[in-house]
Amino acid sequence: MELPKLTDVPMTCTHVCYLAYDLDKSSETLAALGAQEVVRTEFPGGVSIMSALAASAPRFTNPEAAGLVPEINGLMFELIVPTGEGTLYGDHLARNGPGLHHIGVKVPDFDQGFESFTSAGCTVLMKPQTRSVDVPDGTKRDLKMCFLDCAPIGFPTIELVSL
Fold it and tell me: Distance between CA atoms of 125 and 149, rounded to whole angstroms?
């Protein structure tokens, strides 16, 4: 069986994630660039703000849904401030300081996307997970996701997601 190439997998870039030390200063900078906050979420390892440049960006009550909606006319920016070490985000910030953490990529078929990235040489940073999430249209769907280190193919970490 021939494995699909990355170019054979339909993908949509949904967001760019930046890790920071100071949530207020970094969110003020994003706002000065014209970004509108879409959702702010506290999670066990930190605080996240999802922002968009679209003037009419919808607000979401479900933080997981915001990263899955490239249809709001532009790339989303995810700003994360970890609250400690021992997490994917906290350890990265401690090692590397503030900066790019990952690029969010949505694929229609998670297994095909996962196989394509791993066959290309990307390594798994966080095993694939599935969870039920509320999406903006009011329904629940299964979200599949994982984090992949794509340095072997000359790219940063990818958050691979499929609904």
Answer: 6
Q: pLDDT for 43-101, tens place per residue? A: 888 999 988 875 545 555 555 554 454 444 467 889 999 987 788 899 999 999 999 99
**For 110-143, how does the pLDDT look when each residue is reduced to its tens digit (9 = 90+)?**
999 999 999 999 999 999 999 888 777 888 889 8
In CATH, what number does 6-162 get? Answer: 3.10.180.10
48, 81, 80, 53: which is closest to 65 by C-alpha? 48
At 156, list the tokens. 């940063």
Domain boundaries defined on the chain = 6-162
Q: How many residues does the chain have?
A: 163
**From edge to edge, which strands make up the β-sheet containing 12-19?**
36-43, 46-52, 76-82, 12-19, 99-106, 157-162, 140-149, 123-134
Q: What is the mean pLDDT of residues 28-41?
A: 87
